[in-house]
Design a protein that fits this description.
Distance between the termini: 68 Å
CATH architecture of the largest domain: Roll
Number of domains: 2
Number of strands: 13
Structural class: alpha+beta
Number of helices: 7
Radius of gyration: 24 Å
CATH class of the largest domain: Alpha Beta
Order of helices and strands: HEEEEHEEHEHHEEHEEEEH
CATH topology of the largest domain: Nuclear Transport Factor 2, Chain: A
Length: 277
């Protein structure tokens, strides 16, 4: 089959396609009706590619009728999007190299884990005949996107304040009704209100005279919540090494922290910080 020369996607919209987006791919069913499915995708600067199992309806639809369209919104700002209309080229992913590249990009694992024995993978390459990448009002800063970006900045600033030992800045980032929660049954476990957070933070930081280094590994924000995967490295005043891993959930309101929930290896924290085994 001869495929049309693919139309290029404007570079102004490449960021949408390389930030682990979820697209919605449209194929034509046997009865002429349309079928739309959410998909992960990869973009190499020219082509958008999608993986599928050969038993899926979209694969069967494309074998019969290769016409395809896909809409790809920005992950955090749906006012920015790319729409591609074109012809699908189907190739066998025999060595599973393409689906595994999707797994590395979206899941941070080397091998896609969810296929069943006997599943055959195919790669859909979209040859674009038409591309829509509009510039529309509020595309750069819709209200919801502004709030999400503010919350992400507060989360990064909060971690930076911890790293430099700035207790006043830590307290100032909490709302008047803000709370901090630490899990488990350690002496430091429990819920602390804004009036207690300063002394609690100071108590923890004093245990690390060389500083507590908290590193953000991943950060995701949606609506009023920020989820942080992080790890810490520090030398306790006792000489013990403190290396912990965290999942932190923040809730914010008007740029202030309403709730900080910190999940960690509490056995390690208890042994090092609290001196108990």
């Amino acid at each position: 089959m001869n495929y049309p020369k693919t139309k290029l996607i404007p570079k102004s919209h490449h960021d949408i396609l390389t930030d682990r987006p979820i697209g919605h791919i449209c194929t034509v069913r046997a009865d002429g009706r349309l079928s739309v499915n959410p998909v992960g995708l990869m973009f190499d600067g020219e082509y958008v590619r999608v993986s599928t199992v050969k038993t899926r309806v979209k694969y069967k639809n494309l074998v019969r009728d290769p016409r395809v369209a896909i809409s790809i919104p920005h992950r955090n700002n749906p006012n920015r999007y790319v729409e591609i209309r074109g012809i699908a080229e189907l190739t066998d992913d025999v060595d599973r190299s393409f689906i595994n590249s999707v797994a590395r990009a979206y899941m941070d694992v080397d091998v896609y884990p969810f296929d069943q024995p006997g599943d055959e993978r195919a790669t859909i390459t979209i040859h674009a005949e038409g591309v829509s990448a509009p510039n529309i009002p509020l595309e750069d800063a819709p209200p919801a996107a502004r709030e999400v970006e503010v919350n992400k900045r507060v989360a990064r600033d909060f971690v930076a304040a911890i790293n430099r030992g700035d207790v006043s800045a830590v307290v100032d980032m909490y709302a008047e009704d803000g709370v901090c929660w630490t899990p488990g049954s350690m002496p430091i476990s429990g819920t602390y209100d804004r009036g207690q957070i300063g002394s609690f933070t100071k108590h923890i930081l004093r245990a690390f005279p060389e500083g507590l280094n908290l590193t953000i590994k991943r950060l995701t924000a949606e609506e009023d919540r920020v989820a942080i995967e992080a790890e810490s490295h520090a030398r306790h005043v006792s000489g013990k090494q403190y290396d912990n891993q965290y999942h932190i959930l923040m809730r914010l309101r008007d740029g202030k922290i309403v709730e900080w929930r910190e999940y960690m290896d509490t056995m390690h924290a208890n042994a090092v910080i609290c001196g108990q085994v």
